[in-house]
Specification:
alpha/beta; Rossmann fold; Methionyl-tRNA Fmet Formyltransferase, Chain A, domain 2; 2 domains; seven-stranded mixed beta sheet; six-stranded antiparallel beta sheet; about 25% helix
């Protein structure tokens, strides 16, 4: 059994919850959780704690709410932690906090480092039509996502997976990987290797990154839509109105038509690309609830515009 470590955990979204659960279930002592401040959610803008904060409070773990770690450096240093663990916290760790725990900080990152360093590694990997992704547990250094790596786990990206699907799966497998690395650090077995290869950047996505370019080949249009699903969300415009594209599928044996042109073929709503069309399965018109694309198409006026841009 490894010697129990005093851990600080920093994380915010649902993707970080399995990692915190794994650490709580292990032999180590999570002495505090750092997470982002409560934020307004829903139409009524109700202040809501992060998923990580909700779990920590249920487990009776002290929660420190902070959107930046600088102002809480003294508070965290006073915890006398052995190791800091960060998973999708949403903020940088700088000196002197970086080396305040005895073993520094480790990070579970959702990519195969050094590929896709940054805030949106899963989304960027799918948008780039990568066929593989994975997780990496590495030692934090001052440069973004550049520290030596303790463990890597590679997984395939299937043609229909969205960023949400992939991130959910990686959050579970990565949690097990992270817990193993923490145990290895506690027992003195952990060994990290410097990153090698050409880094690529995965900056945070903006709302406008969800706009669909129908002039690209079908496989890249599909990759883009899946990469921005569910956040920030794929969209196009028809007659000046925004249409969210929630779910797509390959259009098999369909004739080609102009990029952005919409048509109903055998009850399926198809959208043209630079190559083959793709099927719109679920959409959300402006001001309406999500619906099946076929139902939306049947309810449109006969003379309504049928070109997306």
């Amino acid at each position: 059994m490894p010697v129990p470590l005093r851990l600080i955990f920093a994380g915010s979204p649902a993707a970080a919850v399995p990692s915190l659960e794994a650490l709580i279930a292990g032999p180590h002592d999570v002495v505090a959780v750092v997470t982002r401040e409560d934020s307004p959610q829903g139409r009524k803008r109700v202040l809501t704690p992060t998923p990580v904060a909700e779990l920590a409070e249920r487990e009776g773990i002290p929660v420190i709410r902070a959107n930046r770690l600088g102002p809480v450096t003294e508070q965290l240093t006073a915890l006398d932690a052995d190791l800091g663990v960060i998973v999708a916290y949403g903020g940088l760790i700088r000196e002197p906090l970086l080396h305040a725990p005895r073993h520094g900080w480790i990070n579970l990152h959702f990519s195969l480092l050094p590929k896709w360093r940054g805030a949106a590694p899963v989304q960027r990997a799918i948008m780039a039509a990568d066929t593989t992704t994975g997780t990496a547990v590495f030692q934090l250094v001052e440069e973004l996502d550049a520290g030596p790596v303790f463990a890597v786990d590679e997984v395939p990206i299937t043609p229909l997976q969205t960023a949400g699907n992939v991130l959910e799966a990686l959050a579970l497998s990565g949690a097990r990987q992270l817990a193993t690395v923490v145990d290895d650090i506690a027992s003195g077995r952990a060994q990290a290797t410097e990153q090698s290869g050409e880094p690529s950047a995965a900056p945070k996505l903006r709302l406008e990154d969800g706009r669909i370019d129908w002039n690209r080949p079908a496989e890249l249009v599909s990759a883009h839509i899946r990469g921005v699903t569910p956040e920030p969300g794929a969209f196009t415009e028809i007659g000046g109105d925004r249409l969210k594209v929630l779910e797509i599928a390959p259009a098999r044996d369909a004739v080609r038509f102009a990029p952005g042109e919409l048509a109903s073929v055998d009850s399926a709503v198809l959208a043209g690309t630079a190559t083959d069309p793709i099927e719109l399965v679920r959409i959300q018109p402006a001001g309406k609830k999500p619906m099946r694309a076929a139902d939306w198409w049947r309810g449109r006026p006969v003379d309504a515009e049928a070109v997306a841009s």
